[in-house]
Amino acid sequence: MQSGSGKASMKDNVRDLGLFGGVPAFHDKLLVGRPNPGDRDVFMQRMSSVLDSGWYTHHGPLLQDLEQRIADLAEVEHCVMVANGTSGLELVLRAANLSGEVIMPSMTFIATAHSVRMHGLTPVFCDIDPDTGCIDPAEVERLITPRTSAILGVHLFGQPCAIDELRKIADANGLMLYFDAAHGLGCTAEQTPIGGFGQAEVFSLHTTKVVNSFEGGAVVTNDGDLAAEVRSLHCFGHGPDNVVRRVGTNAKLSEAAAAMGLTSLEAMPDSIAANERNYHHYREELADVPGIDLLTYDPANRNNFQYVVTKVDESVHGLRRDALLALLYAENVVAQRYFSPCCHEFEPYRSEHPVTLPRTEEMSKKVLTLPTGPSINREHIAGIGELLRTAVKYGNEITSRWLELA
Ligand SMILES: Cc1ncc(COP(=O)(O)O)c(C=O)c1O
């Protein structure tokens, strides 16, 4: 049947599907976010320099270089590298002394909500623009109370939020505006890089992201005081004079992580080019697959195409999204439900503050993110396209047989 090269076997009937006992279409697992490490030799040289110097952490030379390069890329004055994106979001909130309620979308990774709730604030979940999945400014306005201190937008899948509208609402109500830009490295809002909007933005350099530092995050801002406070808080609350003035944590990024971050960042143009090629291949493949709709990115903004997001519409073909997920897994196509369930559907949020968000829930029921990245090629995508065509053709039958298996 299938080889490691990428060519999938044809499967035009239900019997041959891996879910029902057939041989998987792909020998190796195809992943949504395989790491993009960049040039291995360059990484090894950097690691040697770390070992030689004995400077493993505490704002070493590689970290300083990485901070400067990310600040340049985002066209901002300050970048503070931190242990991960979640810590970055927490540190911004602490640095700004936020309290009370923070309005945010629920259509995001759980870390966005936890970053607020961990510090005793209340995430107030807001519905979305159904086309992009990003926070809907009209809904934000409706949710403002005397306890609201901030709006936290998420540039979902690298698509910029409605930044100008959010800024106007924040200014009119004296609220802080900041952004979870975990998906946003290398993306723009029209001509302006994501990174410089609101009071601060936070990138993730997690292993699965377009640029990784194994784990890592970057707080980027043009606010010098906020940057200084984040820098202090991420290192036990120390000031530049080494005097401790408030409670801080340890969210420093090591030199080893910075070595990977730099090398992966150097590969970013190639990684994005591969993602973009893949995205267009998927678009061709999915054009004749009814009820599996590709999320399209607004060409006015540059995207990094690290997410190939589809919406699976059961009403068209009878194929349930989770049946399709199981089907693909069995073929070694490791698709992901980004983001389903979404935040307000998880504990503790669903018990503490039950809300109904019709557009978010509609999207959450349908989303399925497909493998991409430089390790995915045209043949893989053609094979996935074949599987999807077969899956929708026999949608009702697959769903009922999957329900029997469950
Ligand atoms: C939207 C979003 N926000 C925050 C995070 C958290 O980032 P990290 O994993 O670097 O803590 C992620 C992680 O994948 C994410 O997708």
Q: Can you walk me through this structure?
A:
With 406 residues, this protein is of the alpha/beta class. The chain has two domains: 126 residues, Alpha-Beta Complex (Aspartate Aminotransferase, domain 1); 227 residues, 3-Layer(aba) Sandwich (Aspartate Aminotransferase, domain 2), CATH 3.40.640.10. It is built from 15 helices and 14 strands. The strands form four sheets. Strands 2-10-9-6-5-3-4 form a seven-stranded mixed sheet, with helices on both faces. A three-stranded antiparallel sheet has the order 11-12-14. A two-stranded parallel ribbon has the order 1-13. The longest helix has 19 residues. It is globular and about 70 Å long. The two termini are 27 Å apart. The N terminus is likely disordered. Bound molecules: pyridoxal-5'-phosphate. The site of pyridoxal-5'-phosphate has 14 residues, from helix 3 and helix 4.
Give a short summary of the structure.
This protein has 406 residues and is an alpha/beta fold. Helices cover 39% and strands 14% of the residues.
Give descriptors for this structure.
binds pyridoxal-5'-phosphate, Aspartate Aminotransferase, domain 1, Aspartate Aminotransferase, domain 2, globular, alpha/beta, 3-stranded antiparallel β-sheet, 7-stranded mixed β-sheet, disordered N terminus
